[in-house]
Amino acid sequence: MKEKNIPFLDLVTPHKELREELCDVFATALGNAAFIGGPMVEGFEGDFARFCDAQHCIGVGSGTDALRFALIASGVKDGDIVITVPNTFIATTEAISQAGGRPAFVDVDEHTQNMDAQKLREYIEVHCCVDGEKGELVNRKSRRRVAAIVPVHLYGQTADMDPILELAGRYHLTVVEDACQAHGAEYFSKREGRWRKAGTMGRAAAFSFYPGKNLGACGEAGAVTTNDAKLAKKIRMLRDHGQAQKYYHDIEGYNGRLDGIQAGILKVKLRHLASWNEQRRESASRYRERTAPIGERIRLPHEPPWSKAVYHLFVVRVDNREQLQRQLADADIGTGIHYPVPLHLQKAYSHLGYQHGDFPVSEKAAGEILSLPMYPGLRDDQQGRIASELGVFAANTRAASLALAAGAGNW
Question: Is this structure's pTM higher than 0.90?
Answer without folding.
Answer: yes
